[in-house]
Specification:
Elements (H helix, E strand, L loop, with lengths): L2 H13 L4 H6 L29 H17 L8 H16 L1 E10 L4 E8 L10 E3 L3 H9 L3 E3 L10 H7 L6 E8 L2 E11 L7 H41 L1
Antiparallel strand pairs: 1-2, 1-6, 2-3, 4-5, 5-6
């Protein structure tokens, strides 16, 4: 086994058995999900459209701004739930979305849960779980491919029950997977593009870049926390031996 395969296997062990991030970070939160901004929610700003003749330059500019904001989270001191919420809010702002959610996979119970949410009445989703493979997010996690729908209700993948639960009317959706070292960690789902009836190529590229770098930020936090926990165990063992 080479070093690359060993790294992949090591990280797979971190993901197997459920949402280990809760155990690693020891966040004081409900068993499923978190919404650190519930008391003072941040709404995505409606960005002024730039009248640029070169649409490619506009897309590159948006991607750069999004990645810059994501990378700024590397050294930010915050809980794991707050980190995920920051990633979600950046994605909503840069993709001009009314609502969004970050779903994380619980491999032990074979379901997905809402790690962070933002939007009208979205807090009710924090205790909801979705079976693996179900809905748009399930399809995204299984195929590891982005899904973009302009008429969401016409899709057989759409879970109408979720809309009924929160009372939020979804028109269009864009969702992309978070993949870390070959393992699917979760999915970013954004709803209702502001100022348009669908998500365009610019939003697709921006979200793709956000998910790619968000995966690296999450991986860094998980691995460092796992090492910290291992070191703590070693120190406790040394104290007992002394």
């Amino acid at each position: 086994m080479d070093d690359t395969d060993r790294k992949k296997n090591d990280f797979s062990e971190i993901l197997e058995g459920g949402p280990k991030s809760d155990n690693i970070f020891k966040d004081d939160r409900p068993p499923f999900g978190s919404d650190p901004y519930a008391a003072n929610p941040k709404q995505p700003k409606v960005l002024d459209e730039l009248e640029l003749e070169n649409e490619s330059f506009f897309t590159i500019h948006k991607k750069y701004a999004a990645v810059e904001k994501i990378l700024a989270l590397i050294n930010k001191e915050c809980s794991f739930g707050e980190l995920i919420s920051e990633i979600l809010l950046i994605a909503m702002e840069q993709s001009r979305s009314e609502a969004g959610s970050f779903l994380e996979i619980d491999y032990e119970h074979r379901c997905m849960f809402f790690r962070a949410v933002s939007g009208k009445s979205s807090q009710s989703l924090l205790k909801v779980t979705i079976p693996l493979g179900a809905g748009i997010v399930g399809h995204v996690c299984e195929t590891r491919k982005m899904v973009v729908l302009s008429e969401i209700e016409d899709s057989s993948m759409y879970l109408k029950s979720i809309e009924n639960l929160v009372g939020f009317e979804a028109r269009d959706v864009i969702a992309a997977p978070i993949v870390i070292r070959g393992a699917t960690f979760g999915c970013l789902e954004l709803l209702n593009c502001i100022g348009s009836d669908h998500y365009g190529d610019a939003e697709k590229e921006v979200l793709q870049a956000i998910c790619e770098f968000a995966g690296k930020i999450i991986e860094n936090r998980l691995v460092m926390a796992a090492f910290s926990k291992e070191l703590e165990g070693y120190r406790d063992g040394a104290k007992k031996a002394a």
